[in-house]
Amino acid sequence: MREQSTKSIDIQLSEANQIISTKKEHLSAVLQISGALTQNLSLHDLFAIYQDILINQLKIDKILFYVSQNSEWNCLCHYNTDPNNYDIQSYYDYKIAPKSGSSSLLKDFEAYFSIKLNNQSLAFVFLGGINNDVVESKNERLEFIKSLTYLMMSSIENKRLIQEEIAKIYYEREISNATVAQMMLLPIDAFETQKLKAYFNYIPHKDIGGDYYDIFEIKDNKYVFCMCDVAGKGISAGLIMSNFQATFRIYASQDLPIKDLITILNEKAYITTKGEKQITLILGYIDLNESTIEYINAGHNPAFLLKKDELIELAVGSTFIGMFDELFSIKSEKLTINSGDVLFTYTDGLTDIVNNEGQEFTVELLKQYVIDNKDKEVITFINDLHSYVYSYKNDMPYPDDISSMFIRIK
Question: Which of 129, 156, 185, 122 shows the shortest CA–CA distance to 49?
Answer without folding.
Answer: 156
